[in-house]
Amino acid sequence: MKIFELADSIALSVTSARKYNSCAFDGCFYYFTIQCSLEIIKTNCSFYINECFNTCREYDCISYDQTDHCFWATTKKHNNAVFKLNCNMCEIDCITIHGYDNCAGDIVGISYNCCTNKLIIAFSNCILETNKQTGLSVLFYKSNEFQITSVLSLCPGLVISILFNNEQYVLIVGSDGTVRASSPFSYELRIKSILFNPCVDNNNNFYLDFFVLKKGCYPYIYRCRLLLNQLPFQLCQCNFHICNECCCEEEHCCDPCASILHSIAQVESGIAKILDCEGKKLQKIIEESADIEVILDANKEVNKTICNASQLEYLLYLKLSTLVESGICNDMCEEIEIANVTTSYKDVIQLKAKDSCVNQEAFIEQKPKQYENFKEKINIMVDEP
Predict the structure, then answer these.
(1) Residue 172 neighbours by CB under 8 Å, 6+ apart
(2) Is the separation of the CB atoms in 32 and 49 below 8 Å?
């Protein structure tokens, strides 16, 4: 039975040092894990690289969870664990798979079941349905005849790719675990991930995106039109909810004012940590050394760090001043409390801007005086022996 038909083939541009391994789709962006690398690549729908995330592990399979707005990923070093990642690809949780022990080989695929709010985890010989909170797993599908290579939850059923007698097939599995339909797929195009993409606006067509390796090394997206009238079951509406929003974009991501304030806050946090470490370092040296030369040398180095921090604070002050003068924050809340310039010196300067032109002008006039007080205090600290 013909379940889908090829609509487009898209070659992905990668370097020899960066080879895509698996793929996930959040409704707006594609996310690729990288072979032998601690990173995940984010691309737009035209597959141009948008961002590169550094990760704490080398992840293998990855899937998007549209309910929790997060990702679930696996590694080849942990066949009984699934890691939860936020939208910045930071690891925030982990579950241990248990309840069924007859799985063979590595995890070859992972997908999110929107109907049951559970994870679908594929091994080479079986597919499990796993609770996201407890990790308790039950057998969903098992095969002793062929090798499973990837899985997609297309609620209420599954789409899986298999290898059998040197041939590759795509199977449609019903909610009862029985194979409802099958379709051959070129053996030269080794399927690594299957994605459901209902977001392509093209005459109300829906697509399956097959992430494949052509001849074992060249990455492609084979976009195939899904023939809904040929499916042995009716798709649940939750499969289409992924396109209602750009899930992994924060609510303020398109707000330039919020983005700039967020970047300033991140730098301020970094400065606070540096100054805190410098203070602890100097305190440690004073406690452990009675050599005045050692203490003075350490104090001199700390003074240099404070000088550099004061220069960076001035740049942040200019950035904040430009932001206020531009007026792009006028649509934000009626009153904006701006964070302290630095956590370590939170009593030195506090900035407050209100959503009105009069208050913005007063705010601009107040800042130079406030900054001079801050700079004066910094200079006093630098001059102290």
Answers:
(1) 3, 154, 157, 158, 159, 179, 180, 181, 182, 231, 232
(2) no
Q: Answer with the residue of higher pLDDT: 266 or 356.
A: 266
Cα separation of 187 and 161, whole Å?
11
Neighbours of 129 (CB within 10 A): 21
In the DSSP assignment, the letter for residue 77 is T
Burial of 37 (0-12, 13-18, 19+ CB in 10 A): middle
Look at 187 and 339; give whichever has higher pLDDT. Answer: 187
What DSSP letter does each residue of 238-297 carry, written as one string? GGGGGGSS-TTS-TTTT-HHHHHHHHHHHHHHHHHHHHHHHHHHHHHHHHH---HHHHHH
Q: Phi and psi at residue 271, in whole multiples of 5°?
A: -65, -40
Contact by Cβ (8 Å): 85, 92: yes
Residue 346 DSSP symbol: T
Q: Once rounded to an integer, what is the mean pLDDT over residues 200-225? A: 86
Which residues sit opposite 142 in a β-bridge? 126
* pLDDT tens-place string over residues 245-281: 555 554 444 456 777 777 788 788 888 888 888 888 8
- Tokens 């604070």 belong to 313
pLDDT tens string 108-164: 999 999 999 999 999 999 999 999 999 999 999 998 889 999 999 999 999 999 999
Determine contact, residues 246/27, Cβ cutoff 8 Å.
yes
Give the torsion sign (CA, 235, 237, 243, 248): negative
Backbone φ and ψ for 226, nearest 5 degrees, come out as -85, 125
Extents of the domains making up the chain = 4-243, 256-383
pLDDT of residue 63: 96
Cβ atoms of residues 153 and 113 within 8 Å: yes
Cβ contact 138:100 at 8 Å? yes
Domain 4-243 grouped into CATH 2.120.10.30? yes
Q: Are 148 and 122 in contact (CB under 8 A)?
A: yes
Above pLDDT 90, what percent of the chain? 40
Least confident of 11-20, 302-311, 370-379: 370-379
